[in-house]
Structures are given as C-alpha cells and as structure tokens.
Design brief:
The protein is an alpha/beta fold. Helix 10 crosses helix 11 and helix 11 packs across helix 13. The two termini are about 30 Å apart. The structure holds adenosine-5'-diphosphate. The site of adenosine-5'-diphosphate has 12 residues, from helix 10 and helix 12.
C-alpha cells in the first residue's frame, strides 16, 4: 500500500503501472481490466465489454450520477489508451438491482414525466450486495436459490437489499445514493418537503441543499463526526448527541429489516458487511436489539469476536442466521470481468 499525492487520474494510473513493474508483476500478462461504474441506469444491466457504444451509453447516464460517471469514463479512457489490446469491462453498481419488480422501483410520480426523465429507484452497492449474498449462501452451505437474505452494506455510504433466491427484490437507495439509511454524511430518507422548506424558509439554493443533504447530514450532521469509531467513542464518553445519533442510525436499519422481511415473506439470514457492518459489534447489537420477534437472536460473544472471515454471530437456536461477511468489490469486479472476457 502506497499513500501519495497524485495529480490526476492519468498520473495515478502511471504510478500503478510502475508499481506493477517494480514488484516484478508483468503487466503484459493482464487478461482484462474491470472498471467499477456507478450508474448504469436501466439500460446497462450486466457487466459489459467496453466499446464505443458502451462509452456512449455510460456518458448518457451522467446526468443521473454527475459526480461519478464522468470520472469513471476518464479512468476507462486512460486504461484504454495505455492498454489498447486488453479487453476492458464495465461493471455497474446498479446492475444487481435491476431484478426489482416495478412495485419496488417505481416512485408514485406522474408516469409520463417519470418515464421520460427515467426517474425511478435504481439502487447502488450492487456489486457488494451480490458478492456477500453469494458468500453468505456458501457459508451456510445452502444453494443461493433457496435462501431469502437481507444484506446490510454499512460503510460511509450505506444501503440494504432484500435478496430472494439470489435476486434483488428491493433496496434502500433510489434514483441516487441519497435515499434510505442514515449514512456518514447523507441524510437518507426524508420528507421531500424538507427541501422546499429549506429553500423557502432558510433561503438555501438547490445546490446548497444538495450539498447539505449529501455532505453535511447523516452522522456528521447528527453527531459532529462521520467516522463511526469516533461517534462510538463520543457516545461511550457520555456525549448525548452521539448516543442519539447511534439510536437513529440503528432504528432506521431496523425499520428496513422489518419492511424487507415482509417483502421476502420469510427471512433466513441477515448479513452485515462493509466498514461498519464488518467491524462494529455495537452497531450490529444495536440493529438486532428489538428484532427478536422476527427470529433474530445474536450470540454476544460471537458478535464481539473479531475476524476477517465470513462468520455466524447469531445464537445456535436463532431461527434467522446473523452473518458477518467481509465484502470484496474488487474481487467481484475481477471475476465478473473474467466471465465477460
Ligand atoms: P466506503 O463506503 O468509503 O467504502 P467503508 O466500507 O470502508 O466505506 O467503511 C467506512 C466506515 O467504516 C467508516 O465510518 C469507519 O468509521 C467505519 N469503521 C471502520 N472500522 C471500524 C470499527 N472498528 N468500528 C466501527 N466502525 C468502523
């Protein structure tokens, strides 16, 4: 791991290529290059070999993800220029969620307007949800097709997915990654009228509100820190705002678990992943507390034990298995890339 300042994407790539050479890796051996692309919209629904048409299609999704798709394309262009003969594959964060039925993805807006502007729920973190759902089935030793799972990706960004038989049927992020759970700096679910109220009463512009809800809300807005370790330290030291922020954070997740258990009809396992899901036994305990009536029973000692491997943290007699499954989006992208090639 090298931590250095890089001027831009092109400079970053140059350093990666040099690092390959200095560690003895033969960069000419590359079978392919996999790119994470945040927004595939409703057209790019599977890992796709990059050609002119793919580049055009990714560019067309840019209004839906203005902060992400243009830099993703920049990375693709630089990699193509450096490795013109190596196949490049785009893997979309939205793809796994394209199996959602219309009742889950449709907003109750005028149909013509929503269809024209492609305003609907897309969902994100799909690569991670897909990876941990498959790993959870492996860990349980059961075919994914038989399992109903709720996967909780709790990192700086956070989302939850309901996965029935290996297919996503609902997820908490929407048109953009702002909807759903409380996150590091994003508010998650809000009454949309808060936006009008902030505009009319506080005189904030649309851009101000965009910035407020995406970058200054969530745990940062509630507790003054977006790093969950710091929030937990403050709560343990008696900081009331931090303690309340943790309650808001865990309660929001519990509401989604209740809703998605209903959507699934039967829940076999609750799967925690990403920085907070993998590392914070306090958040896991806070989420599971109050879910006993759904058949969720944690084993406190297993929950506290640290490991980097997939593991069960529920009690032996828990009707719903609670698992911690470390995510690995890079590996999933590499495997999907290889499958396309
Ligand atoms: P990203 O969405 O940026 O990929 P990560 O999945 O790396 O995020 O998760 C980052 C979050 O994980 C941060 O809020 C960080 O505080 C939290 N985190 C990492 N380690 C721990 C830990 N030991 N206890 C609690 N939270 C942790």
């Amino acid at each position: 791991v090298l931590e250095e300042r890089v001027a831009d994407h092109s400079d970053g790539f140059d350093r990666i290529f040099k690092a390959f050479e200095t560690t003895g890796g033969k960069i000419t051996d590359l079978a392919g290059i996999g790119h994470r692309v945040v927004h595939g919209g409703d057209r790019l629904t599977a890992p796709t070999l990059v050609d002119d048409a793919t580049i055009k299609a990714i560019a067309e999704q840019a209004p839906l993800a203005p902060l992400h798709n243009p830099p993703n394309l920049l990375g693709i262009r630089i990699a193509m220029a450096s490795f013109p003969d190596t196949p490049q594959v785009a893997v979309f964060d939205t793809a796994f969620h394209q199996t959602m039925p219309p009742r889950a993805w449709r907003y109750a807006l005028p149909r013509d307007l929503a269809d024209e502007l492609r305003i609907r729920r897309y969902g994100f973190h799909g690569t991670s949800h897909a990876y941990v759902a498959r790993k959870a089935a492996e860990h349980l030793g059961r075919p994914a097709a038989e399992l109903n799972l709720i996967t909780l990706h709790l990192g700086n960004g956070a989302s939850v997915a309901a996965v029935a038989g290996g297919r996503c049927i609902d997820t908490s992020m929407g048109l953009t990654p702002l909807e759903g759970l409380v996150m590091g700096t994003r508010s998650g679910d809000l009454d949309p009228a808060v936006v009008f109220y902030l505009h009319r009463e506080a005189g904030l512009s649309v851009d101000d509100i965009d910035d407020l809800l995406n970058k200054r809300s969530g745990m940062l807005g509630l507790a003054g820190a977006n790093d969950m370790r710091e929030v937990e330290r403050r709560a343990a030291a008696g900081d009331a705002a931090a303690a309340e922020a943790l309650e808001v954070y865990c309660y929001r997740i519990r509401k989604y678990v209740g809703a998605y258990t209903t959507a699934l009809g039967r829940l076999d396992a609750l799967v925690f992943t990403a920085g907070i899901g993998e590392n914070s036994d306090g958040v896991r305990a806070g989420v599971c507390q109050g879910l006993e009536h759904l058949g969720v029973r944690l084993n406190p000692n297993r929950n506290r034990a640290r490991s980097s491997r997939p593991r069960t943290v529920s009690a032996d007699d828990s009707p719903v298995a609670v698992l911690v499954v470390p995510t690995n989006e890079e590996l999933e992208i590499a495997q999907q890339t290889l499958a396309v090639i």
